[in-house]
Design brief:
Layout (H helix, E strand, L loop, with lengths): L1 E10 L3 H9 L7 E4 L3 H7 L8 H4 L5 E9 L4 H15 L4 E8 H11 L3 E3 L3 E5 L11 E5 L11 H13 L5 E5 L5 H8 L4 E6 L2 H13 L6 E5 L2 H4 L4 E7 L2 H11 L3 E13 L3 H10 L2 E9 L2 E8 L4
Parallel strand pairs: 6-7, 8-9, 8-11, 9-10, 11-12
Antiparallel strand pairs: 1-3, 1-4, 2-3, 5-6, 12-14, 13-14
Helix pairs in contact: 10-11
């Protein structure tokens, strides 16, 4: 398949707001080049202090956001949408677009996706990279392919950290908008008895199944293509939705149908300016926040029904 790669160059201070707009154009994610804190991240995440000279020379004042539009979608329409939204948000942006094929797309992921340690117990490691597990962490090998979910974005890492606290040995987990399958697979590796992921994008589900196999989690995971209401049944003790604020708000009215008594609903993908909207909708739907976490202007919540102990 051929793709159009759209590159958005924005001031570094506007990275989070720009990423939120960019995420509206695609279901399978974006990646961001941001070298503003290169030295600290190299030390804390990669545990190295020797950095390639080419990286050190990158412009620290801007970020570059990469979006991929498939040939089945309308790249020109996406470009017009982005121009309009960035103008309305008052964000200065330089846009460029060029054609790439599948192999180029996958190689671009490999340039910017490296091993990262999440929370106290997890390490997310690309399938093509070696990782020295000095801390005895639970290692999740992931190949995002054309699906969103590497664990490096704040929205996903917040969910993964919450999973460490809420997954129990008897947990049955539902991942809504599963993308690469990272949350469902992490749940199983953390001890859940079973995890089900659902996504409307067939490529994402294919990638999720492949990632489950890589991690030896195929026997405890199931990934389904289609709409949540049409394809998923049963009740779960833990439900996750790492999507966007508007979809989370729509989900809140129907989420209870998939939740056991005492179940936890983890929601993420919420930019901080939409926090109030999501919490108000959660309250109207009968939920309250048992846990709130914030990183890089993104929010995640663990919600419980108000009647639950």
């Amino acid at each position: 398949m051929n793709w159009t790669e759209i590159k958005l160059t924005v001031p570094q201070k506007d990275t989070d707001a720009a990423a939120a707009i960019a995420n509206m154009t695609v279901p399978y994610g974006i990646y961001i080049e941001d070298y503003s804190d290169l030295e600290r991240e190299a030390e804390e995440i990669a545990h190295i202090n020797l950095i390639d000279e080419e990286l050190i020379g990158r412009d620290r004042s801007v970020s570059v956001i990469h979006i991929y539009i498939s040939e089945e979608d309308n790249a020109a329409e996406a470009l017009e949408f982005l121009k309009e939204r960035f103008s309305a948000a008052g964000i200065a942006v330089s846009l460029a677009a060029e054609g790439v094929n599948d192999s180029d797309w996958n190689e671009n992921w490999k340039k910017y996706f490296h091993a990262s340690e999440i929370g106290k117990r997890l390490a997310i490691v690309p399938s093509w990279e070696r990782y020295e597990n000095k801390g005895g962490r639970t290692v999740l090998h992931i190949d995002p392919g054309a699906a969103f979910g590497t664990g490096t974005h704040a929205t996903t890492s917040l969910c993964l950290e919450m999973l460490e606290d809420y997954v129990k040995p008897d947990t049955e987990m539902l991942d809504i908008g599963c993308g690469s399958g990272i949350l469902a697979i992490a749940s199983v590796l953390l001890g859940a008895g079973r995890a089900v992921g659902v996504d409307i994008d067939a490529q994402s589900v294919k990638t999720a199944r492949e990632n489950a196999e890589i991690n030896g989690a195929s026997g405890k995971t199931e990934f389904i293509v289609g709409d949540l209401a049409e394809r998923v049944s049963g009740k779960y003790s833990l439900v996750c939705a790492n999507i966007v604020a508007d979809v989370v708000i729509r989900l809140l009215d129907s989420a209870e149908k998939y939740m056991e008594d005492g179940a936890v609903l983890i929601v993420s993908g919420i930019i901080d300016i939409r926090e109030g909207d999501v919490l108000s909708a959660a309250e109207r739907a009968g939920f309250e926040a048992a846990d709130r976490r914030v990183r890089d202007n993104w929010c995640a919540f663990a919600l419980r029904r108000k009647t639950d102990a």
